[in-house]
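#lab-general

N.A. 3:47 PM
ok so I finally got the sequence cleaned up, no stray characters, all 302 residues accounted for. can someone with queue access submit it? mine expired

B.Y. 3:52 PM
send it over

N.A. 3:53 PM
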Amino acid sequence: MLAHMTSPDLDAAANFLAANGRVLERRVFERVFTGAGPAPVRDAIAAYRNCDGGFGHALEPDGRCPDSQPLAAELALRTMHEADAFDTGLVSDACDWLAARAPLDGGVTFVEASIEGWPHAPWWVPEPGQPASLITTGLIAGTLHARQIAHPWLDRATDLLWERIGTLTQAGPYDLRAALRFLDHVPDRVRAREAVLRLEPLIAGAATLDPHAAGETHSPLDFAPRPSSLAHEVFGAEVIAAHLDHLAGAQREDGGWMFNWPAWSPAAEREWRGAVTVEALLTLRAYGRCPAAPVTGGAGHP
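B.Y. 4:20 PM
back already:
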């Protein structure tokens, strides 16, 4: 670890991504931290696109099949959003794919059955009956609302999410993170704030307040990844600051960050490290913990 760091070493992160990251994460880093244009990010995302408008080919590192998968679509849309590289054509086609695959009540499944027979994380298991998933539906709908996208799939998904969130009495951390992505961006802000107030005990109970806790924990920053996140008030400034300190200090000597869930595949581990490195930097940047000046170069980094 880079001890006692309260802001990241961007040059070290750039070198880590150059040595270990996918083209996608390198392009996102260049876009956000060096002022590069959006086209290379869009092109990198488009490389994972299928003819049906969805995304596959291990864009989401835990699913290694070529066929389109909901979590791959989620990562494609979120990456374009975070890199300010939204492409109307890619987004429209992805929404059409979501609509074509939607369960009867709307939304989208967690994992499509096409994953069967391909390498995948053990938690990538298609649910019996292929119901709508709060996780994938909430994450995707939140990103689309953040960009004020209009599409029939989003209309139905929004109705479904309001219904699901309104009846939640227990939920896992990933369900809550997805619900919060939706609530952070859905247009009805009054209703969203009321929902977060009702969910506050669940959110507080799902987060691990000790920044140094080991294992597959969920930091307050997972629920409030940006200062504008509604869950920010659940934890307070002092707790958020402590976790930002820990996140900055978790940068490893090689310049990258490491995830805290099981690594089931060497390829997925390497790809996830690049993805979580970029995500860590985006969170630290949003909270004002990154250097203001763009990256100008590091050892071996032009």
